[in-house]
Amino acid sequence: MSEKKFLMPRFSMLLAIASAITATSFATAASAAEYLVKSKAEYQKVSSSLHAGDKVVLASGVWNDFEILFYGEGTKDQPISLVAEEKGKVVISGESNLRLHGKHLLVSGLVFKDGYTPTSAVISFRSSKTNYAYDSRVTEVVIDNFSNPERYENDSWVMMYGKRNRFDHNHLEGKSNKGVTMAVRMNSPESQENYHRIDHNYFGPRSILGSNGGETLRIGTSHHSLKNSYTKVENNYFDRCDGELEVISNKSGFNEFRGNVFFESRGTMTLRHGNDNLMENNVFIGNGVDHTGGLRLINKRQTIRNNYLEGLAGFRFGGGLVVMNGVPNSPINRYHQVEDSVIENNMLVNVSHIQLAAGSDQERSAVPITTSFKNNLIYSDDKRDTFTVYDDVSGIDFSGNVLNDVSKPTLKEGFENQSLSLQRGDNGLMTVANPADTKAGLKEALDPITKSDVGVSWYPKSDRQATFGFGAERKLKPGQDTLTNAIKAAENGDVLALAAGRYSVSKLIAIDKSIVIKGVSADEVTITYERGALFEIQQGGNLKLESLTISGVDSPDSSGNTVVRTPRRSMLSNYELIVEKSIVKDLDINHSFNFLTVAKGTFADRISIIDSKFSDVTGAILKLEQENDDFGIYNAEYVDIVNSSFDSIGGAIVDLYRGGTDESTFGPHLQVVGSSFNSVGKDKRNKSKSSFRIHGVQVTDVSDNVFENSAGIAVAHTVAEPVTVIKGNRFISTSAPSVVELNSDKKNTAKISGNKFIKGKK
Ligand code: CA
Questions:
Q1: Of 50, 186, 196, whose CA–CA distance to 137 is shortest?
Q2: I want to staple 318 with a disulfide (CB 3.0 to 4.6 A). Which of 64, 314, 744, 755 is the partner?
Q3: How far from the centroid of its chain's Cα atoms is residue 56's Cα?
Q4: What's the rounded mean pLDDT across residues 491-504?
């Protein structure tokens, strides 16, 4: 017997036996119907009059451009549900979303992919400013890479409104446009004191956004932050949520964060605004990954208790444990003073930085008060002191804490220095080998939730993959367009191994997958090309060039050529570009010939030039200055120049620009080590008038290089305390580096030391 028929409801068992009459006449409150719908039109028809206990089943298949409005008044025992015919087999794609309003609604089993929402949310727990969802649940729903194609077009995947709603066992992965992945909204009384529950969700990888607006979960907003939310965030898994400084941004009161796991996520759980919140039994595992952080504390009556933090490398606002300074009489959107808060029984293992009174400056001068820091166990293998104290911390009562044999601890009172040995337990966490040694640390043993305990079982979770070289190796012989054709035919991850000879390229080569192009040696393999660019890195593309010579001799005689470029429009996916053991030369057929030219709205995770030689270039090597609106956006996270040489380069080697004063990103980072620069940056078209323009870069290391007859290094600091080191360089007939502070009266924090300045020939 076919149980599901369109508009032929299947009544609850009792009714079904007694009746064979069509749905419409039985659409009363007492009946419970099941509708299998196979088209949008069918859905519209049944969804307009749903009653308690009704079930709408979406047929398996792809539903394109489907804006689902789901509403009705269910009851606790008889919710109205919207489910997939088969979990995971109902794919909502194109310009689609889901809005729900009413009471006791249940949604499950849908997959949103291959599209994006035309509105501000993919799933919204309201359908309009007057229609909210209450006592409703969204469970076992997948949202996978459902990002607006315009990188800086702002939207969210889930917006919770209303009250007593639950969002659980969902899988959210790959948001790459701007906007918090999930938000609890509190902008009207219908959504305040909401008692929502967010649990057992898989918050999968979120790539670095390169701007504010890359949070994974936010509860409230600064405007309503003194209102209470009473949201519980429990047993969720945050897997490599790297969007920005804040993985979670709490901005309201009386929320509980319990039993969540933060795995290799760059950023912190921030108690940004609002009071009376609880952080308990959470586990942070950083594995030493750059900028992995823990907890950041602001405001009143917060409790941070029994959390486990290990291997977190983050510093400054992104540290393992950060207690902020506040602003006296702070406006609601700045920093309220830390007061009456408790940090107790936490265990920190190899956490690089604990920061107290962080952010202390002229504005943030209100130090933490009436706060206790007790029975915490802070262990580092290297016995290093992990505390940095930025201001007066006499308002924090330290007691019963234990350090592992730190030789000169910053804080002495309330800390015992003990020699401890740890061992890894069955739960994957470190414990004190002999529990009798100390009472500090976790009071209650933890059993952290695993990846397989969260989300759904029927949709694969993301595992880490190498960026390059995970496919096959394809051998290639020289000739006209053999390279173009081979890249077209290659699979994601392939390595093209080029035999000795010359490879001429007559068309722009699109790189929309991970590709390594590797020659036998740079001296034996030359690539020349006839278009304005050789490679265009497109959505999904990563490119590594190894042991090759690239020459611009066959390029068109026009200005503005480049070797590598991004598409001219914004791009969602982050890319990597690596140049290793290669020679790049003769980019001088006309002016402004760059090596890399990028567009606004594109973002590189990493650009590295290693063991390579560049010569005779009229433009810049890496031109990364397209985000010129001063919105705190930038074009690349890590830029490395290592053991390479540059001769006769008209423009800058690196022009890296991050404007604005926003403090929510970790990058950009620039490393320039062991390289030589001869006659660089002196072309009259080089507007930066420098060999390196380093504007708003957060971490800069320029060490052990030789600059000769070149334009200087120009550093501009835009936000507090960037890390700038310029040391051990020789500057021959090259002006000294200049560092300016654009937004601080303090002496600049750049460390410039051990450099030699030589006039004339060496
Ligand atoms: Ca933020």
A1: 196
A2: 314
A3: 36
A4: 98
Q: Rounded to the nearest whole angstrom, what is the distance from the C-alpha of residue 211 to the centroid of ligand 1?
A: 8
Beta-carbon-side half-sphere exposure of residue 264 (alpha carbons within 13 Å):
13
Which pLDDT value is given to residue 750?
93
Ligand 1: centre distance to CA 509 (Å): 37
Compute the distance between CA of residue 333 and CA of residue 439 in angstroms, rounded to an integer. Answer: 39
Tokens of 173: 């992965």
What is the DSSP code (8-state) at residue 747? P
Q: How many angstroms separate the Cα of 311 from the Cα of each of 290, 350, 716, 745? A: 10, 5, 32, 35
pLDDT of residue 720: 66
The answer to whether 98 and 68 have CB atoms below 8 angstroms apart is: yes
Asked whether the bond before 79 is cis by omega within 30 degrees of 0, the reply is no
Backbone angles phi, psi at 316, to 5 degrees: 50, -135
- The stretches of 409-499 forming alpha helices (DSSP H) are 482-489
Instruction: Tell me the per-residue pLDDT of 431-480, one tens digit each, with 9 for 90 and over.
Output: 999 988 999 999 999 999 999 999 999 999 988 889 999 999 999 999 99
Determine the distance separating the centroid of ligand 1 and the alpha carbon of 244, expressed in angstroms: 7
Kindly provide the residue ranges of all beta strands, DSSP E only, lying in 370-520, ordered along the sequence. Answer: 371-374, 377-379, 387-389, 396-399, 401-404, 415-418, 422-424, 430-432, 473-476, 479-480, 495-498, 501-505, 509-511, 514-519
Report the separation in Å between the CA atom of 243 and the middle of ligand 1, taken as the mean of its atom positions: 9
The mean of the pLDDT values for the chain is: 94
Which pLDDT score is estimated for 751? Answer: 95
Pairwise CA distance, residues 578 & 622, whole Å: 12
For residue 222, the CA-to-ligand 1 centroid distance in Å is 11
Q: How far apart are CA 584 and CA 10, in angstroms?
A: 71
Closest CA to 549 of 519, 567, 522, 568: 522
Q: How far does residue 350's CA lie from ligand 1's centre (Å)? A: 26
Contact 718, 743 (CB under 8 A): yes
User: How much helix, strand and coil, in percent to the nearest 5, is found in the chain?
Assistant: 5, 40, 55
Whether 565 contacts 536, CB under 8 Å = yes
Residues, CB-to-ion distance under 5 Å, ligand 1 = 212, 246, 664
Which of 123, 130, 121, 140 lies closest to 102 in space, CA to CA? 130
With bands split at pLDDT 50, 70 and 90, how would you rate the model's confidence at 31?
confident
Give the percent of the chain with pLDDT over 70: 96
554, amino acid identity: D
Q: Is it the case that residue 138 has pLDDT exceeding 50?
A: yes
Residue written as token pair 């950009």: 668
User: Which are the contacts of 242, defined by CB distance < 8 A and separation ≥ 6?
Assistant: 205, 206, 207, 208, 214, 265, 266, 267
Which structure tokens are listed for 352? Answer: 């690089």
pLDDT digits (tens, 9 = 90+) for 654-692: 999 999 988 889 999 999 999 999 999 999 999 999 999
What is the spatial distance between Cα 663 and Cα 315, in angstroms, rounded to a whole number? 13
Q: Which residues pair with 397 in a beta bridge?
A: 372
Residue 18 is predicted with a pLDDT of 37
pLDDT at position 676, please?
Answer: 98
**What are the φ and ψ backbone dihedral angles of 484, each rounded to 5 degrees?**
-55, -50
Q: Which amino acid is present at 472?
A: A
Q: How far is the CA of 583 from the centre of ligand 1 (A)?
A: 41
pLDDT above 90 coverage of the chain, percent:
91
Check: CB of residue 509 under 8 Å from CB of residue 534. Answer: yes
pLDDT at 762: 47
Task: Tell me: pLDDT of 537 over 50.
Answer: yes
Dist. CA 662 → ligand 1 center (Å): 9
d(CA 544, CA 537): 11
DSSP 8-state code for residue 210: S
Distances (CA, A) of 162 to 467, 484, 668: 42, 55, 39
